[in-house]
Structure formats: structure tokens, C-alpha cells
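Q: My labmate handed me this sequence with no annotations at all. I'd like to see what the chain might look like in three dimensions before we decide whether it's worth expressing. Could you predict it?
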Amino acid sequence: MKLSIDLVVDSSQEWIDAVMNDFNSFLQDHANCERKASSMAMSFVAKYPDRVEIIPELIDTAIEELEHFQCVYQIMEERGIQLPQKMEQDLYVQQLIDCCRSGREDRFLDRLLLGSIIECRGAERFRLVYEALPDGDLKKFYHELWASEAKHGNIFVKMSMNYFDKGEIYDRLNELNEEEGRIIQSLPIKAALH
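A: Here is what I predict for the chain of 194 residues:
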């Protein structure tokens, strides 16, 4: 059974062109996104320590995202690229979080489902990067990353099934997915993951 859903809007050719034309900036942003993804998984552990059914998987996800950060940082080191002095706010993620409902349980579900959608968008974009890169180690890395992020899209939906009804999950996932499509189309095109 497929646990995530397909994105309602595909990334544009203009986006992949921007990435390929300024790959160094894309790597810097990618590194920041991996750090944030690791922190996001651990923030669930901090905010919901009573959700013991999902804590091991959250920890595994946080470690895997941190390993991705390490890999991107090594690529940056090889290219002589430094991390940015400051992590910019991710307008995409912030607008998605603004879609979250209030109330402990509603917000918990929404944040899990947004985790799924963000990972699905990452997988889609890593696939586009992989397809655009010439043969070599970098292409291989983004191919592996694409598979990993696709798996994460399923993980967050699966976690939510420990606590919520399947119908409620997919109804809300579809609503948030529609919002994500609107948001991704409204963002300026730049050499960044979002």
C-alpha cells in the first residue's frame, strides 16, 4: 500500500535550470535543508515524548538526515564551498507550517503530514537534479538521495496511522497537498531546494 500521495504540481523546468546554472548555491541550500530535516525529526521527539511508538523511527530519520548533511558538506568541501554565514528562513516550509491547525492533536497530525509532503517534494526535486547531472559521483549521490527521500514520504504517514483514522489522515493529506501545490507555484524560482 502506498502511504504517501502524489504531488499535485510538478516542479518546473525553470527551477531545474536555475539549479544547474548555480549548483554551488543549490548545494549550500541543500545542506541547510538536511540540517533542518534532522532537527525537525528530533523536534517531534522533544515535543511528543509520550508518542513512544514512533520515537525510534524519528531518531533513525534524524540520523539519516544528518548523514545526508554530512555527505553534502563533503561535496561542498571538495568544491571549496562554505556553509552560508546564516541559515535563511525557508519561505516554503514557513508557509506550509502556517497551514497547520491549532490544538495539540490536529497540529501533531498536520506536522507529520507536512513532513511527508516536504519529503515527497524533496524526492521529486532530487530526481530532477539526478536526471540533469552528467554521469559521475554527484549523479550517483543524487540518485541515492532520491530513493531515500521517497521512503521518508511514506514514513511520516505511517507514523500518523498509530494515532489517527486512515480516512482522516488522507483527507487532511489531500488538503495539505493542494496547499503545497499553491505555495510551490507562488515561490520565486531560485537555485534552492524549495
